[in-house]
Amino acid sequence: MDYSHGGSTEGCRDPVACHAWINAKGDIDSDSLADLKAYVATNAYSPKVIRFDSPGGSLIAGVELGIWLREKGFKTEATMCASACLYAFLGGTKRTAIGDKPLLGIHRFYSDNRGQEPTAAAITALDMDGTQKIMGALLQYAVYMGVDLRLLAYTIEAGPEEMRWLTMKEATELKVVYDPAMWLPWEVVGGEDGGSPWIISRSQDGTKSMQIACSNGRRSFSFADTKGNANWFRQCQAGPTNGYHFILGVPVPTSSVEVVDLKGGGAFLNFTLPPGYPLDYSDIAVFSYKKDYSMACTDTDGDYEGTTARLAALARYALVQCR
Questions:
Q1: Binning pLDDT at 50, 70 and 90, where does residue 126 land?
Q2: pLDDT tens-digit series, residues 182-208
Q3: Distance CA 188, CA 319 (A)
Q4: Which residues make up the CATH 3.90.226.10 domain(s) of the chain?
Q5: What is the distance between the alpha carbons of residues 262 and 245, in angstroms, rounded to a whole number?
Q6: Alpha carbons 39 and 75: distance in angstroms, whole number
Q7: Contact, 83 vs 61, CB < 8 A?
Q8: DSSP for 126-193, written as a single string
Q9: Phi, psi for 196 (deg, rounded to 5)
Q10: Is the per-residue pLDDT at 260 higher than 60?
Q11: Which of 112-121, 150-159, 278-287 has the highest mean pLDDT?
Q12: What's the rounded Cα separation, in Å, for the pair 200 and 284?
């Protein structure tokens, strides 16, 4: 695997602002990690972003590379990343598929000689023992990286000379492609046994969620952040200069906002939407309007922007009893 500078070539101490990365191209082998360490050591301002273009290589080397990337806080990107490369890619604290047609692939692991002649030798007891140990190690690795373990089940779908390419939907659901702050599409929850359905969207790391529901004929929008500061939310509850929060385009008076401490930390906010207002599904953001909130209460990092994916249709379904 060869490493080189990618992106902006301007002299810059902030690689994020300069939009730069380390290109990682070619097969992963036993020297790949040492070569990367040497590259980083000799390039003082190398960004902590590595972009893979690799068909794979050594499984063990890929795992070792992934562990080092995670320990050092690297983000990973990939235009094409398959086999052992995918395990290295999982080491990123944030993982992004790049380009119009990115390729992320996985298959069953195998030794070099079995890959060249998969039917040449009988499977021995030692082979079985080794295979179980490797699979156990990969399970531990996947848990450490925070990936859905269904990913490893997908490996059985492709043999040594095949590849199971992941769709972007699969890659996102399995947390192969991962951004802690990314909001997932809205989905319907409940509605069984005659109960009222409600809809929810979550951040990919599961720490934040938004819900829309109809309860006792009233429409509500709720927001939960398990890592948020409840006192900060209470401060911002009364923050709008005009006395109203605008949620789904509806003016919600501060008296209709409830802040509740969550057990274990964080807070839950509930906005009761007044009747008679049509809802605007084009903007789901909370605490994002600088003209309405003080600087201290403005979501400058975009943590509470949410997503509109599948929102309009599902919200109409969930709120049908609240018209």
A1: very low
A2: 899 999 997 666 678 899 999 998 999
A3: 11
A4: 2-173
A5: 22
A6: 16
A7: no
A8: HHHHHHHHHHHHHHHHHHHHT--THHHHHGGGS-TT--EEPPHHHHHHTTSSB-TTPBPPPEEE--GG
A9: -80, 130
A10: yes
A11: 278-287
A12: 12
Entry pTM: 0.74
Taking the C-alpha atoms of residue 62 and residue 1, their distance in angstroms, rounded to an integer, is 11
Side chain identity at residue 241, one-letter code: T
CATH number for 2-173: choose from 3.30.70.1120, 3.90.226.10, 3.10.310.10, 3.40.50.300: 3.90.226.10
Can you read off the two tokens belonging to residue 53?
């273009």
Long-range (24+ apart) CB contacts under 8 A made by 68-77 are 68/33, 68/36, 68/37, 70/144, 70/145, 72/48, 73/48, 74/48, 74/49, 74/50, 75/48, 75/49, 75/50, 76/49, 76/50, 76/51, 76/52, 77/21, 77/49, 77/50, 77/51, 77/52
Task: Kindly state the tokens that stand for 47.
Answer: 């960004």
Contact between residue 77 and residue 105 where contact means Cβ atoms under 8 Å apart: no
- Where do we find the tokens 């699979």? 135
Shortest CA distance to 305 belongs to which of 203, 179, 188?
203
